[in-house]
């Protein structure tokens, strides 16, 4: 079971990666019965993520995260999660919260998507936000 973190010409300033990986594995195993977890978090800038958004989703918009579930077999979770540190920084300022808090919120958001949680409908978004807040509280306390 591996959770890896990569940076594409940016610094995510992500700390305590080993602790975070353990927490993410616990989080995922609460919702999914998988024997293998292989997730790559790729931290990048707005331009890089916009290119992915256009190429794979045909969306011409900036976003903070794109999650790709690449799993091909039952009982395994294989994924790539792209996160724009530009969006994280801007959203942290906009919502007047700490950069690390916003970074972790988005990291948990991606994992929760992989667990089946959605955020398109109003009620789904409310549940996703609740789950993100719960994850932040558990992780930082």
UniProtKB/TrEMBL annotation:
The protein's Enzyme Commission number: 3.1.-.-
Origin species: Taibaiella lutea
NCBIfam families: rRNA maturation RNase YbeY (TIGR00043)
Cofactor: Zn(2+)
Cofactor notes: Binds 1 zinc ion.
Gene that encodes the chain: ybeY
Top EC class of this enzyme: hydrolase
Protein name: Endoribonuclease YbeY
GO biological process: rRNA processing
Intracellular or extracellular location(s): Cytoplasm
One GO CC term on file: cytoplasm
GO MF terms held by the record: metalloendopeptidase activity; RNA endonuclease activity; zinc ion binding
Job description of the protein: Single strand-specific metallo-endoribonuclease involved in late-stage 70S ribosome quality control and in maturation of the 3' terminus of the 16S rRNA.
Similarity section: Belongs to the endoribonuclease YbeY family.
Family annotation (PANTHER family): ENDORIBONUCLEASE YBEY, CHLOROPLASTIC (PTHR46986)
């Amino acid at each position: 079971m591996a959770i890896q973190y990569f940076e594409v010409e940016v610094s995510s300033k992500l700390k305590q990666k080993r602790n975070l990986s353990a927490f993410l594995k616990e989080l995922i195993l609460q919702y999914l019965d998988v024997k293998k977890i292989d997730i790559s978090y790729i931290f990048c800038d707005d331009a890089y993520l916009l290119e992915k958004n256009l190429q794979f989703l045909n969306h011409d918009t900036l976003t903070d995260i794109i999650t790709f579930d690449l799993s091909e077999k039952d009982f395994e979770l294989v994924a790539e999660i792209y996160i724009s540190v530009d969006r994280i920084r801007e959203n942290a300022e906009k919502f007047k919260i700490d950069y690390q808090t916003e970074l972790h919120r988005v990291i948990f958001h991606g994992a929760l998507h992989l667990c089946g949680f959605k955020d398109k409908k109003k009620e789904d978004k409310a549940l996703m936000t609740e789950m993100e807040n719960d994850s932040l509280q558990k992780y930082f306390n």
